Give the backbone structure.
Amino acid sequence: MMAPVACVRALRSSLFQYHFSLCTVCSWRLKSSSLQKDALSEKQAQMISRGLPKQKPILGVKQVVVVASGKGGVGKSTVAVNLALGLATNDVTKTVGLLDADIYGPSIPKMMNLKGHPEVSENNLMRPLVNYGISCMSIGFLIEEMAPVVWRGLMVMSAIEKLLRQVDWGKLDYLVIDMPPGTGDVQLSISQNIPISGAVIVSTPQDIALLDARRGAEMFRKVNVPVIGLVQNMSVFQCPKCKHETHIFGADGARDLAEHLGLDVIGNIPLHVNIREASDKGQPIVVSQPQSNEAKAYLQIATEVARRLSPSPV
């Protein structure tokens, strides 16, 4: 009969060997599970990659610039309109187009003072409406002015496809796309269907808007679209009487976000009544008040965008 001490030692040894065996099995299972997960993730990535549409350039368009924001109400469309006009103003040899991809809230027709339906070419392509030298296309030209767009996702995607592929843009050096706010199907579809030269993210300096702007920038990075930089809109308000400046929405919020993301702020647009009035009249400030400080701010943004874009193919 074994002594008590010897029994305890033997029991401990058996338990140790048992636990060691369990650990070995668990370790093997964990490694096997990890390998299986990696293999599954790789397989899923390959399947997704095969399922994505191949990017096809828009006929006649050299470079596409998208203007986006994480949320609505930050002045994205105003920036898009004046950016397009700024690109054309800064270099009169360049031809510029403007596409309104905001299906639910098209604002380009009013801002560019355009009405009517597009004509159809012999090739059954829609011809853009033109004002201030900018070729424009919007869902707003295809529906009644006050009619709400009550469409489900498939109809929206079909409309986007038509605006991308069934428009006779002619020869354009730049096509500026006014994206809808957010990071949904339309943004992904456009990013995956056409090669985009760069994205401009618009935000106000307030924290809530910056959170959504960050999501927008990260989305473009995930779909391999270069982010040109951030535009800080409504950055400061200057009293028209005493000239005192007030940062109503905060100061340097976009600059802090840009630094965190490794990007640059390519322009600051003040909060000024002239910008709003000019947009409401369909006379964008870059063409109606080109010598104003507000117009110069947009022109500077257009200069930065053109400078940061890769050289367009000949």
Observations:
- The chain has ten helices and nine strands.
- The longest strand covers residues 227-238.
- The chain has a mean pLDDT of 82.
- The beta strands are 61-68, 96-100, 129-131, 134-138, 172-178, 198-203, 227-238, 245-246, 265-271.
